[in-house]
Amino acid sequence: MEILLISGLVVFLGRILQDLAFNxxxxxxxxxxxxxxxxxxxxxxxxxxxxxxxxxxxxGEDPRLLIFLGLGSAVGGITVxxxxxxxxxxxxxxxxxxxxxxxxGNSDLVETLGKDGFIFTVEEREFTDxxxxxxxxxxxxxxxxxxxxxxxxxxxxxxxxTIIPAREVYVV
Length: 172
Known about the structure:
Layout: H1 2-30, H2 34-58, H3 65-94, E1 97-103, H4 109-115, E2 121-126, E3 132-140, H5 143-154, E4 159-165
Antiparallel strand pairs: 1-3, 1-4, 2-3
Helix pairs in contact: 1-2, 1-3
C-alpha cells in the first residue's frame, strides 16, 4: 500500500508537471521562441517517459495506479487553465496600444486629452479627399487608458479612430 501511495503521488505530480510543460511549450512556440520550445520539449518528454515507465512498472501490482494518472492529468489541466487565465488577465491589463485619431473641428480635443495626461503627436494633414484634418498619434500604456480615451471620444462627431494592440504596429 505504501508503494502505491508513493508511486501514485509521483505519477500525480509528474502528470501535472507534464501538462504545465506542454502548455508552456505551446506558448513559447506561439511567441516564436524555438530554442525554448526545444528545451521544454526535452524536459516534457523526460517527465512523460518517467511517468509512463512508473505506471507500466507498478500496474501489475496495483491497477489503481491508473486513477492517480488520470487524476494527475485532470488536476494538471485545471492548473494550467487557472495559470493561463491569471497570466492573460495580467497581460490584458498591461498591454500597450497604438491610437490614431483624425478629425476636422473639435479644436478643444487636443487640449482636453493633454489635460488628462495623454501624449500624442499632433499634425495637420491633407487627405486624398482634399480635406485638411488634424491627426493625433500615440501610444496608450494599458487597457484602462484605452477605455478612458474612448470615453473622451464617444460624444465627438466626425472622428476617424484607430486603436490597435501595439505589438501589431510596424514602422516601415
